[in-house]
């Protein structure tokens, strides 16, 4: 074990996988300079054949990822900020998510798209979107959202080895988050949620960046005798519904925290699934803690008002635990 | 640096100087504020490129449209945007030109034809093309100008805009500010051929100018704006310049290896557009030293006032955070 920052864990995962599999190529804008640090040193280590800076042309690079994967490469394609998924969206939605299906499974598309997603740093509306709901709705894209450095490493390795297009979304501003990362080989299968903290009173499903405030909230409320079970789905596609439902059956209560706009958020989807499959176990209405249906504003006071924080989560937990059936 | 001088009155020449200096001093203030941790978000400074915004916008009226980039303070101020309200915006205050909702990358003032800075590289090119279409339909000689970088020239949208602009003879002026870098990549490492030549296959007139020579820019824009106003269609201008500050303030904290030499930066500082223009004005007897000093003092006061206004402005009301998503919520 060693303490590492999330971005460092990601960097190691890419390095180790590129060493292991010479078919991997990585490209994107300024991956050599590496704005976030996840691709730092890779150009030096693997050279320009395998690590390439591209011009600013997201519509091309997302399509190139599909073409190179179809032609036999394993591809890591860096989209930088989640919002630039939109400028690269055509090939993501119309090619990456569909080409295998339309061609009757003739090919695999082993692509890992990297992007930072979400807000919290006054980067304003065009650099702060949480893009997972948009991607999840495409159907043909797997989605990973790590909640800790160790998970980031293990999940990124699994994503790179996966034979399907995977979006690996690292929470913006959480790259520096430290955590224990095992020294030995670590590959965490996609589609396995993890219980970050057990508790009997309420299930708190927290996605990506929301894991940390959820745990903080759980720790704070434990002092008052409210036992919160924090479940981190880790991947949204595929979704480990069984672990979530089993927890809901134990606690009888569910809150989902998601740094996405409320409408069609992953929180909404998970809430709907729980209502459908665990209705009998519920002792209170399911609650979602999400971003209101607005842009992410620039000024810190405005941004704090819309992003879910510990206080928002705590209020939801209190309301859920204290809920009584109206007579 | 003399071609255009004869076309400009002394007052106009001094106005060009004043505007460039205002942009410079505002941004130097922002650089200090950023270093002091006073700015909540990222800022991309325009230092060294002022001649382009100023040389172009001198031909524009409030009713003409401009679109800008993440490096948009200079365009905002050159087009007549209010310095104090820009400052308040970047400070994240309620009196900001966008109420603190947008910040540095989104300063905009539609009443002044400033469609705004933009966080999406290349985004402004399509917006300007649309504004040019609207201007053409209005039929009153308005034009639309897109300012964008050499990096943005590699987005496919430039080709799409050149095609539609040429096909429809839109009153569109495309100003590519080639400042040597696309973030941390030197232009030549990500850009094939010459940007100015990208217009040729579409039959769009294009020219390359010294972007650090405000009069050369003024001259090139003069032709392009006139052509656009008269229904002659689009023009591409590639203005060669250099970004003397970082891509983004504070980049040294996350970019571990230098991507250019100090000597290169120094060489370009020697070609600073403001210093060059001041020297030109002096040697041609167009401005006395005390006149330039008076401009410097007045600009300094404007900047100080902008800071005062920004600092005195309250933070936005958190309850307003979800406001104005729609003109008609239902
Ligand atoms: C669509 C999109 N892709 C990538 C980025 C990230 N980015 C911000 S500025 C920049 C470089 C832009 O270079 P250029 O157009 O030459 O303008 P300059 O920064 O030199 O003024 C990049 C890649 C972005 N903001 N938008």
Structural commentary:
- The complex is a heterodimer of chains A (327) and B (330).
- The radius of gyration of chain A is 20 Å and the shape is globular.
- Chain A has helices at 6-20, 42-50, 58-70, 84-87, 89-96, 99-102, 132-136, 149-161, 211-222, 241-251, 266-277, 300-306, 310-321, and strands at residues 2-5, 24-28, 51-53, 74-81, 111-117, 142-144, 166-171, 178-181, 194-197, 202-206, 228-232, 235-237, 254-261, 287-291.
- Helix content of chain A is 38%, strand content 21%.
- The relative contact order of chain A is 0.12.
- Chain A has a 7-stranded mixed beta sheet with strand order 3-2-4-5-7-6-12, sandwiched between helices. A 5-stranded mixed beta sheet of chain A has the order 9-11-10-13-14, with helices on both faces.
- The mean pLDDT of chain A is 97.
- Chain A has 13 helices and 14 strands.
- Chain B has 330 residues and is of the alpha/beta class.
- Helix content of chain B is 42%, strand content 10%.
- Chain B contains 11 helices and 8 strands.
- Chain B has a 6-stranded parallel beta sheet, with helices on both faces. Chain B has a two-stranded antiparallel ribbon with strand order 5-6.
- In chain B, helix 1 crosses helix 11.
- The longest helix of chain B has 26 residues, at 10-35.
- Chain B is globular.
- The termini of chain B are far apart.
- The chains are: A alpha/beta (327), B alpha/beta (330).
- Thiamine diphosphate sits between chains B (69-71, 119-121, 148-152, 179, 181-183, 243, 247) and A (29, 56, 58, 80, 84, 87).
């Amino acid at each position: 074990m060693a303490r590492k920052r999330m971005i460092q864990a990601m960097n190691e995962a890419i390095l180790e996988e590129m060493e292991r599999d010479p078919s991997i190529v990585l490209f994107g804008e300024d991956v050599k300079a590496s704005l976030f640090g996840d691709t730092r040193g890779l150009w030096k280590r693997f050279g320009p054949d395998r690590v390439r800076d591209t011009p600013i042309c997201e519509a091309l690079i997302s399509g190139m990822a599909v073409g190179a994967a179809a032609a036999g490469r394993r591809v890591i394609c860096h989209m930088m900020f989640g919002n630039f998924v939109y400028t690269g969206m055509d090939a993501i939605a119309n090619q990456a998510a569909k080409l295998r299906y339309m061609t009757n499974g003739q090919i695999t598309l082993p692509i890992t798209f990297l992007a930072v997603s979400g807000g919290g740093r006054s980067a304003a509306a065009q650099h702060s979107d949480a893009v997972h709901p948009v991607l999840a709705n495409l159907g043909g894209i797997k989605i990973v959202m790590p909640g800790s450095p160790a998970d980031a490493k293990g999940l990124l390795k699994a994503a790179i080895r996966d034979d399907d297009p995977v979006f690996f979304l690292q929470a913006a501003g959480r790259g520096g988050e430290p955590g224990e990362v095992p020294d030995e080989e670590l590959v965490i299968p996609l589609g396995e949620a993890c219980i970050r903290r057990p508790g009997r009173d309420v299930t708190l499903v927290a996605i990506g960046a929301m894991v940390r405030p959820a745990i903080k909230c759980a720790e704070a409320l434990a002092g008052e005798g409210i036992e919160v079970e924090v479940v981190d789905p880790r991947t949204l596609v595929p979704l480990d519904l069984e672990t979530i439902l089993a927890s809901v059956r134990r606690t009888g209560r569910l809150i989902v925290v998601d740094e996405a706009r409320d409408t069609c958020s992953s929180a909404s989807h998970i809430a709907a699934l729980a209502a459908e499959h665990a209705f009998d176990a519920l002792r209170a209405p399911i609650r979602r803690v999400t971003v209101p249906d607005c842009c992410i504003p620039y000024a810190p006071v405005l941004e704090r008002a819309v992003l879910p924080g510990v206080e928002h989560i705590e209020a939801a937990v209190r309301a859920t635990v204290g809920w009584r059936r109206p007579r | 640096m003399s071609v255009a001088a004869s076309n400009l009155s002394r007052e106009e020449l001094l106005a060009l100087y004043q505007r460039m200096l205002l942009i410079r001093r505002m941004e130097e203030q922002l650089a200090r504020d950023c270093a002091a941790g006073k700015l909540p978000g990222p800022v991309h400074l325009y230092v060294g490129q002022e001649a382009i915004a100023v040389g172009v916008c001198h031909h524009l009226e409030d009713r003409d449209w401009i679109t800008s980039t993440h490096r948009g303070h200079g365009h905002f101020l050159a087009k007549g945007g209010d310095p104090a309200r820009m400052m308040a915006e970047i400070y994240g205050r309620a009196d900001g030109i966008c109420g603190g909702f947008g910040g540095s990358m989104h300063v905009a003032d539609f009443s002044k034809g400033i469609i705004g800075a933009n966080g999406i590289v290349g985004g402004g090119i399509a917006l300007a093309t649309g504004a040019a279409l609207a201007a053409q339909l209005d039929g009153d000689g308005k034009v639309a100008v897109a300012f964008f970088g050499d990096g943005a020239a590699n987005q496919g949208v430039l080709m799409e805009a050149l095609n539609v602009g040429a096909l429809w003879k839109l009153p569109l002026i495309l100003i590519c500010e080639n400042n040597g870098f696309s973030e941390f990549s030197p232009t030549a490492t990500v850009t094939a051929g010459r940007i100015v030549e990208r217009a040729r296959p579409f039959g769009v007139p294009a020219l390359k100018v010294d972007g650090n020579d405000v009069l050369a820019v003024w001259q090139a824009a003069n032709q392009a704006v006139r052509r656009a106003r008269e229904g002659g269609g689009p023009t591409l201008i590639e203005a060669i310049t250099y970004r003397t500050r970082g891509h983004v303030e504070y980049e040294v904290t996350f970019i571990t290896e230098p991507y250019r030499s100090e000597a290169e930066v120094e060489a370009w500082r020697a070609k600073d557009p403001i210093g060059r223009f001041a020297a030109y004005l002096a040697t041609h007897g167009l401005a006395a030293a005390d006149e330039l000093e008076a401009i410097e003092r007045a600009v300094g006061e404007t900047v100080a006032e902008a800071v005062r206004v920004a600092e005195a402005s309250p933070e936005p009301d958190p309850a307003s955070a979800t406001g104005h998503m729609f003109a008609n919520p239902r």
